[in-house]
Structures are given as C-alpha cells and as structure tokens.
Amino acid sequence: MNKTIYPIFFSFLFCFFTACQNSSNPKSELALPFYNEATFTPKWFNQDDEALHQFHKISDFSLTNQEGKQVTSNDFKDKIYVTDFFFTTCPGICPKMMTNMMILQDAFIEDDEVMLLSHSVTPKRDSVPVLKAYAENKGIISDKWHLVTGVQEEIYKLGRHDYFVEENLGLEKEDDDFLHTENFVLIDKNRHIRGIYNGLNKTAINQLIADIKTLKKESL
Length: 220
Hints:
The protein is α/β, with parallel strands linked by helices. The protein has one domain (27-218): Glutaredoxin, CATH 3.40.30. It contains five helices and seven strands. The chain has helices spanning 6-23, 94-107, 128-138, 152-162, 202-218; strands at residues 62-65, 70-72, 80-86, 114-120, 145-149, 183-187, 193-198. A seven-stranded mixed sheet has the order 2-1-5-4-3-6-7, with helices on both faces. A hairpin with a 5-residue loop joins strand 6 and strand 7. The longest helix has 18 residues, at 6-23.
C-alpha cells in the first residue's frame, strides 16, 4: 500500500468505528439541559435516565384563555411550549415581549407541536373580553397562542415556583408582590424546563427558535 494512503485509511477506520459505537449507544446525552430551581443551574441527563421521572415538572394548572375556554396542563400534553407573564396595560416591556412572541408564532405557525402561553399578572383587570380584544389587535392566533387569566394566586405560584421566571433575579418577594419579568421559558413535552431567555433580546429569541428545533429532534 502506498504510504500516502495510510493516514487516509486509518482516518476512515477511526470514523467508521466511532460512528458505529455512537449509533449503538442509546444513552446519548440530551442536547439541552434541564432546570429545577431559581438559579437556573443546568442539569444534564441521558435519555433513559430514571432520575428524570422525579425531576421538577410544571404543576397541573387550569386557567381561562381569550376565547373564554378552559386551558389546562392537559392541553399541552405532548407539546413543546414557550411561556411568559404580561399584562395588557403594560406600557414598558410587554409590547416588545409581545412583538418577540409574535416572531415565535410566525416561526411555528404550521407546527402543531409548538404552542405559546402568556399569563396575565393582572387577571382581575384582564378579563376574557379584554384579552380577546388584545389578541385581535395583536394578530394572535388562539389555537396557537393562549392568553390566560384566572386566580392570581395560581398564576403567581406558577410564575415563581414552577417556571422560576422572576426568582433568578435574586430578589426576595412575597407571594402577593407584583410579578413582572421579561423572561420567556421553554418547556418540553414532559413539562420539564429546558431554557430561559430574555424576551426583549432578538439574539435570545433566535436562540430560542433554534432550541425549539433541537427539542423537536429529541422526540424523533
């Protein structure tokens, strides 16, 4: 054999055996981390790790959307979704958050696996008719993106203790203190938190879109 062929030949063998080894290993590490507390320290698992069965999940919930329909955690079964917290009269960060959430709606408009969920943090003021008018004004598609109202205690509990949307700011707050945050949270089909993103930042939104596509590949 020509000596110049040796490096190419052995490189081919290395790649071949590596590929075989990887394809026969079902315990490959998942591409996105998991999160279970307010510091958002990433945790990594293999796909068949039993620890995932006991890992932090979003609690069951029951709220009402802009169509007056009950929306529960069951509506997100086998769905990837992005969630945030807003209020319709917010003059500051909310309009920009809505603009960026609209980018997500447009990006996955034909994808039934991906949903959006926005919670009102002023649910007494943001009644169903108010949310309906707001959704129509913004071009929100009800089947894709739920704007929800309900009992404030439940919404705030979800925000602070399930999604950790505000706790990572390092501020100690009482349960009834006003909840206000620009964070978007990515939830997988098993109700695990897989990412947190600045809802005001275009680069973060682009990363979120990429991460949603990564999650979709996980379930293949």
